[in-house]
Write a structure and sequence with these properties.
about 190 residues, mainly alpha, Arc Repressor Mutant, subunit A, 2 domains, RNA_pol_sigma-70_dom, transcription regulation, RNA_pol_sigma70_r2
Length: about 190
């Protein structure tokens, strides 16, 4: 569904909201989970994001994609949630499953080999490598990890990431490059 008409919308109907949730619900939930590492908190934040989108659609000006707008709401809602007393008293420690229904396609440039028609064995090995790489990414400092996630998994452009994180495009490029270098070095060390 093309959501460009929302740039002038003052309200949205339930069908449009349902379509937005179908199209972007997994992205919002996964990003909330990435930021909180809690399924319960990701559920709660995701619901809040779509409530805010529904009630605040007049603030969507179409200057960025709807996906970027929703991820920005997700990030801001999570940071507000983190400040709440409930969040600070909740438990942490769950592991983060990164692979989506779409599989490892979003991180192809970091996978060790490409196969036109992979065998079952090659597919299993590739998935193991993807999980190992994401383990490395998730161990990076937040400033690198978040940019790698937004760029590789959510396929946001440098400008979209810069706008969303309120940093310069140059900073995004630098952190992305340094983050990839850190991942490559750690990957090479693990596989010596």
């Amino acid at each position: 569904m093309d959501y460009q008409f929302l740039a002038q919308a003052q309200t949205i109907d339930n069908y449009t909201l349902s379509s937005m949730m179908d199209d972007y619900g997994n992205d919002v939930w996964n990003y909330a989970y990435f930021l909180t590492r809690s399924t319960e908190q990701a559920d709660e934040i995701s619901q809040q994001v779509f409530i805010q989108a529904y009630s605040g659609i007049k603030h969507f000006r179409g200057e960025c994609s709807l996906k970027t707008w929703l991820l920005t709401i997700t990030r801001n809602t999570t940071f507000t949630y983190r400040k709440s007393r409930f969040f600070r008293s909740s438990l942490w420690g769950e592991t983060l499953p990164i692979e989506s229904e779409q599989g490892p396609s979003h991180i192809r440039e970091m996978t060790p080999a490409q196969y036109a028609h992979p065998s079952a064995e090659a597919e299993v090995i590739s998935r193991e490598h993807v999980h190992e790489i994401w383990d490395i990414v998730m161990a990076l400092p937040d400033k690198f990890r978040e940019i790698l996630l937004l760029h590789l998994k959510y396929e946001l452009t440098m400008n979209e990431i810069a706008e969303m994180l309120r940093i310069s495009t140059g900073t995004v490029k630098s952190r992305l490059s340094r983050g990839k270098d850190k991942v490559r070095k750690q990957w090479e060390e693990r596989n010596r």
